[in-house]
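Tip: read the tokens left to right.
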């Protein structure tokens, strides 16, 4: 959620037992308010749909968020307490996270390496829990990572989520996801994404925390940025910031692989970042995860570890600057995205 420029007056002074206190922000398809339970005095965040976002798809996404979050119970995922999905008002009541967003923390530049590694490990644990319950997030980015009163990261905003077994939604009218953190398969086949797309988002999150930059630099237009998602290979984080160990840098780039099958699972990524051992029967990439078992320490010490890659796996493209214009290959892979006049939104025709 971004900070609201103008007050949203669509929420009554009282909603059930909750009393409205102040607006916290607005963006996407809703606005968020701080509310107080009249009987207990406890304070929560109430997320309500914005009027202009109502419609078949908007309501479907809102229902998905409520249903997805209701199935999840993890300390690093936003917790839902109450949901109302009937007119005249659609809203969720969630825990209040007073520590701000990761996006705000990154305003002054990259985080200390140990802090970035710790945050990424915890968010990855939450994502692994969601995946174990058949829920994808699909829009992991610093703006959607909040901090509780103890400074622990919490992944929020499952408005773009879907269950693996749910009927896939039609991708028309707007782009689902954030261009600089979207996995390539979200660009070319948005309806067919799976858990590896969230792992890519985790890799983009870690990259931003380590370097202060997104892995994919923005172009002048959204369509141009989407083309870069397909063909631009990010520079290794340790090349941009020497205190990042080659081991951590390699793990980050593996999560950002253009090929979904080369990425670790969210559980494997979280285990590697936290320095936990990986069960032999669970690791899909045991060879390189074994080298990342003490990654939490390596991230701080800067010990050099040679990247060997998965056995028999395809090699990654060389790291280089972003192309000025989409190549013919990228143009062929891009769906028929039609850009809006302001260059901020696209629709699939």
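Filled-in amino acids:
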């Amino acid at each position: 959620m971004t900070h609201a420029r103008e007050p949203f007056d669509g929420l009554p002074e009282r909603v059930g037992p909750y009393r409205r206190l102040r607006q916290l922000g607005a963006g996407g398809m809703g606005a968020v308010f701080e509310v107080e339970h009249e009987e207990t005095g406890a304070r929560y965040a109430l997320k309500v749909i914005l009027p202009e976002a109502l419609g078949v798809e908007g309501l479907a996404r809102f229902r998905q968020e409520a249903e997805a979050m209701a199935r999840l119970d993890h300390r690093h995922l936003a917790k839902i307490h109450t949901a109302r999905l009937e007119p005249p008002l659609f809203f969720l009541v969630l825990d209040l996270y007073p520590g701000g967003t990761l996006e705000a923390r990154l305003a002054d530049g990259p985080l200390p390496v140990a802090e970035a590694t710790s945050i990424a490990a915890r968010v990855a644990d939450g994502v692994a829990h969601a995946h174990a319950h058949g829920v994808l997030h699909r829009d992991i980015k610093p703006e959607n990572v909040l901090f509780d009163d103890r400074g622990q990261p919490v992944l929020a905003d499952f408005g773009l989520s879907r269950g693996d077994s749910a009927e896939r939604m039609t991708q028309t009218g707007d782009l689902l996801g954030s261009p600089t953190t979207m996995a390539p398969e979200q660009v070319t086949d948005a309806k067919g994404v799976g858990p590896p797309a969230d792992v890519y988002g985790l890799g983009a999150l870690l990259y931003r925390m380590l370097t202060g930059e997104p892995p994919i630099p923005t172009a002048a237009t959204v369509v141009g940025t989407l083309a870069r998602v397909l063909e631009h290979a990010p520079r290794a984080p340790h090349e941009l910031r020497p205190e990042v160990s080659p081991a951590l840098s390699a793990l980050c780039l593996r999560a950002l692989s253009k090929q979904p099958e080369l990425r670790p699972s969210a559980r494997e990524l979280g285990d590697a970042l936290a320095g936990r051992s990986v069960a032999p029967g669970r690791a899909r990439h045991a060879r390189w995860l074994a080298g990342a078992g003490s990654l939490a320490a390596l991230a701080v010490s800067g010990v050099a570890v040679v990247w060997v890659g998965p056995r028999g796996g395809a090699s990654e493209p060389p790291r280089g600057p972003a192309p000025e214009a989409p190549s013919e290959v990228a143009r062929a892979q891009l769906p028929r995205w039609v850009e809006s006049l302001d260059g901020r939104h696209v629709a699939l025709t």
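The mean pLDDT is 77. The longest helix spans residues 113-132.
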